[in-house]
Amino acid sequence: MKTLARPFTAALTASLLGLVPAAHGQSADLVSRLKAAIEANTKGEVKVDTIRNTPVEGLYEVSTKATDLFYVDRTGRYGLIDGRMVDMRERKDLTLSRLTELRNIDFQKLPLHLAIKTGNGSKVLAVFEDPTCPVCRPLHKFIAQIPDTTVYHFPYPVVTKEALPITATAWCSPNRAEVWERAMQGGLVPPAAKPTCDIAALEEIVKAGDALNVSGTPTVFLANGRRLQGAVPPDQFLAALEESARSTSAKPSSP
Asked: Do 46 and 114 belong together in one domain?
């Protein structure tokens, strides 16, 4: 899987070591003090979205505009990164539950009219995929084998420099879905000539992906809004898809 540049973890790990005065004062201004401390410590690398209490006294949950999640003490200097908070009595991964909530989307707000649509089944999903992404190809094949699906394929040519010309070739083809299938099987090579049609829609798709914090390919969105990213084990993928189909009573209308 190819992931776009995400300096978050490394930058945060290093820069949280910087010195910032502790956040004293009334609890009413603790959130603003923590936000200022975190952004100062990370030299602006981390853009805080929300700060919430956790079940652990003195430890706060911080979510970023890139839908990352970590924990800090009340000074904003010390952080727990890439860790999981688990309620051991309830056997519940609180971090995973919160991340799922943060990364969910409104499926109907996807630019479905720009997608390459295949199928007309009851299990609805959208996938941002790149023809040069090594993980995207097996997932594309796997999804094609799932019965009773409606799939909105969003060409997302961000992994290599060859991705855009290959994607443009499929996009400009009169048989777009068929040629995109070939592209996702590795059957297209970058053409020597420039695109033969307007590919502004591809730019719109990339912008939509950016707005949704699609940080790597493949990224799947299920009809219930859940996000699945990367090489999800097949049994987990199918279970999530079935759950989505059960929880959504109707498919989105065809664009």
From this structure: no
